[in-house]
Specification:
Largest sheet: 6 strands, parallel
Shape: globular
Strand content: 5-15%
Radius of gyration: 19 Å
Number of strands: 6
Strand order of the largest sheet: 2-1-3-4-5-6
């Protein structure tokens, strides 16, 4: 869970206590953003003292990492990274818009979420110019192949994991195309999902996925560690089903099916430093099998 909330904490505790059936949940703290935040529910941090305080808070609450987001300033991002290093708490999340990708890699951010986090840095125009462009322009523009090769190698060498979430682009499929699994969503919930995204003005799914596949293929070829994620629930991004969609994109990017399955099982355990607890079928491991 990459957006910790009191509700998700309560759910995780109920499952651990055996009050509810469900998966073992591992969560970051709340989204940590700058001012103004991308989401009104986010935790806003604007200076080094606040950065140190939120790192201590997330460490004390047992979260697996601190989640960084788009509007953080370079100074506050650096303060979070420094405080997290002292606390031995991984930094996970987006590439803040004001922070160059090379600085995030140099900081050894544990993971980067979403292919969209790379848009500005892979553009053929200078970074400052890309920052003024819309996501629609960037998804439809050219990728600088030299930058893609260089950043792919840098990510691999720094041990930064990437969770590309290509499946989330399926929410942009035409309204007359319904994704696998949507038939199991209660109609009233589906209506609410569609309403929640009526405001969105994204490029179409085919454009986004084609962009994402080029980046994903380069990352896999360079040996970047990849994790499957979906950002569900959204229209056509159904929990469970969307994970299989994402693994399909991994295979299309060059993974073998066994490699894709490993990315969804043993790799997350390794990412969390819990490879001796789950992620493989072996004596003594937790039996997370369906």
């Amino acid at each position: 869970e990459a957006w910790g909330t009191p509700q998700s904490d309560e759910l995780a505790a109920s499952i651990r206590a055996g009050k509810l059936p469900g998966p073992t949940l591992y969560s970051t703290g709340p989204i940590t953003d700058g001012n103004p935040p991308s989401w009104k529910e986010s935790r806003v941090v604007t200076n080094a003292a606040e950065a140190e305080a939120v790192v201590r808070e997330d460490k004390a609450r047992g979260y697996v990492g601190i989640k960084v987001y788009d509007a953080l300033t370079p100074e506050v991002y650096r303060a979070i990274v420094d405080a997290a290093k002292v606390a031995d708490l991984p930094v996970m999340g987006h590439v803040p818009l004001a922070v160059p990708l090379e600085d995030v890699i140099r900081a050894r951010q544990k993971s980067i979420e979403h292919i969209g986090s790379f848009l500005n840095d892979l553009a053929t125009v200078p970074l400052a110019e890309a920052a003024r462009m819309s996501s629609k322009q960037l998804f439809g523009g050219e990728i600088d192949d030299g930058k893609l090769v260089r950043f792919s190698r840098a990510l691999q060498e720094a041990g930064v994991w990437v969770c590309p979430t290509l499946a989330v682009f399926q929410m942009e499929w035409p309204k007359d195309r319904i994704g696998v699994g949507m038939q199991y969503i209660p109609p009233r919930y589906f209506t609410r999902l569609l309403k929640n995204y009526e405001w969105a003005d994204y490029p179409d799914a085919a454009l986004e996925i084609a962009y994402g596949m080029k980046v994903l293929t380069a990352f896999h070829s360079a040996g970047v560690r990849l994790l499957p994620g979906t950002d569900s629930p959204r229209p056509n991004v159904v929990p469970g089903f969307a994970l299989h969609d994402e693994l399909g994109y991994f295979v299309a990017a060059g993974m073998t099916p066994p490699q894709a399955l490993a990315a969804a099982t043993s790799a997350p355990a390794e990412f969390l430093g819990l490879e001796h607890e789950f992620g493989r079928i072996a004596v003594g491991m937790r039996a997370d099998m369906i």
